[in-house]
Recover the amino acids of this structure.
């Protein structure tokens, strides 16, 4: 089964690993590229299942997308005649296809995107997206699982997000970038990927101010010119390899990071981060929060590390309502984790043991890889396709650090 990982545990990771471009910046910039008036070239987009699906979606919609010799990604939307709907089958594979809502409304005032099915980590509704695009003048109909949006009298608007949703903030910035007038998004998400989107749009001639703070102001412009742009490194991938060093008792130099993006998970960092495992792992209490709080995407990897910590740790998941599915799998490896609602109580154990486990979502899969590196014996991770969605060349990178993985 090509989507099964087999990992022999007990080997410390040693060496250096180069972090790839950020999945969650690449996906939104690929959507935003359809608003440009020519060929956009994106550098540093990771080649992972999610970006490959996004390439297929773009081609299906009529914007030709392809990887170039130098590894960069070319996206060239047609002058006109681009479809205003995302292909249903493909967009079911990728929640991030909902980012075409704002990009299509910004480009051609019409969009049909599928409401994401309840995914593994929670219901993930789009009520904040809908409220925002309505405020900007789109008429919305929900019809057989799709959002049908038609821009009628679009105009700038002041929008308050009840929750600092990353996707809603991104959709609204993209739509507002081409909507006449001044728009203000309050309680906006502040993730670095939002800042990357704003920098990208501004490099195309947009007027987006305040990204990275909770108030983003956008002055609509009539056209966005195509150009070349390099996306930021993936802070979650970096955090995952940092935990890899700690959990396996190794020493890893993690290269190509932006230190400030890692402050939520590291006290002190400098260019390139050398992580040396301590003699023991100490317990910790963690709450996930929107940026700059501890990232929800690092919750599962951290849970794996804390399962072998000395003492008891408490992790509270405040962002998604169902993001503890890997707990049962970790317990099958000898962890002692108890769930009480959105809180996981982790009683550290001296060791984990190899087992056959199953990945339920991307970051849960990453947590199982980390646990397998530390475990005694061999671990088989089924449904590993989830892991390939978000970690470029994870087998090559871990093998390069001395892991025995296939
Ligand atoms: C983005 O998802 C990321 N995905 C996720 O990364 C990440 O976990 C998440 O932000 C939080 O940081 C991409 O960028 C492609 P949200 P998104 O809208 O935009 C609720 C990974 O592992 N909500 O900030 O879908 C929602 O239900 C992925 O790389 C509403 O209630 O996240 C959730 O509980 C997983 N109504 C919370 O907000 C809405 O209209 C956060 O969701 C929208 C969201």
């Amino acid at each position: 089964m090509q989507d099964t990982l087999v990992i022999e545990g007990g080997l410390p990771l040693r060496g250096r690993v180069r972090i790839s471009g950020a999945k969650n910046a690449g996906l939104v910039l690929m959507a935003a590229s359809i608003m440009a008036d020519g060929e956009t070239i994106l550098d540093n987009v990771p080649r992972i299942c999610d970006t490959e699906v996004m390439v297929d979606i773009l081609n299906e919609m009529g914007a030709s997308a392809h990887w170039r010799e130098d590894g960069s990604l070319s996206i060239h939307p047609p002058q006109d005649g681009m479809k205003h709907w995302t292909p249903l089958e493909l967009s079911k594979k990728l929640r991030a296809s909902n980012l075409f809502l704002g990009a299509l409304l910004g480009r051609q005032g019409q969009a049909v995107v599928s409401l994401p099915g309840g995914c593994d980590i929670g219901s993930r509704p789009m009520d904040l997206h809908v409220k925002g695009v309505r405020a900007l003048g789109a008429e919305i109909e929900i019809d057989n699982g799709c959002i049908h949006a038609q821009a009628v009298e679009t105009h700038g608007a002041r929008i308050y997000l009840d929750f600092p949703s990353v996707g809603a903030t991104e959709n609204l910035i993209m739509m507002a970038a081409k909507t006449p007038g001044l728009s203000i998004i309050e309680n906006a998400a502040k993730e670095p990927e939002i800042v990357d989107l704003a920098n990208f749009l501004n490099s195309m001639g947009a007027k987006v101010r305040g990204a990275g703070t909770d108030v983003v102001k956008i002055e609509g412009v009539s056209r966005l010119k195509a150009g070349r742009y390099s996306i930021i490194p993936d802070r979650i991938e970096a955090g995952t390899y940092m935990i890899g060093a700690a959990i396996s008792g190794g020493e890893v130099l993690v290269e190509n990071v932006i230190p400030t993006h890692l402050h939520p998970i590291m006290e002190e960092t400098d260019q390139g981060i050398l992580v040396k495992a301590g003699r023991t792992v100490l317990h910790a209490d963690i709450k996930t929060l929107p940026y700059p709080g501890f990232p929800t995407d690092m919750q599962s990897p951290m849970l794996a590390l804390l399962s072998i910590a000395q003492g008891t740790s408490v992790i509270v998941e405040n962002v998604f309502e169902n993001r503890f599915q890997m707990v049962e799998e970790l317990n099958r490896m000898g962890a002692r984790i108890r769930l009480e609602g959105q809180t996981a109580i982790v009683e550290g154990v001296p060791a984990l043991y190899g087992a056959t486990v199953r990945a339920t979502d991307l970051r849960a899969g990453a947590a199982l890889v980390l646990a397998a590196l530390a475990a005694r014996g061999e671990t088989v991770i089924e449904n590993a396709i989830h892991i390939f969605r978000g970690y470029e060349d994870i087998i090559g990178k871990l093998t390069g650090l001395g892991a025995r993985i296939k």
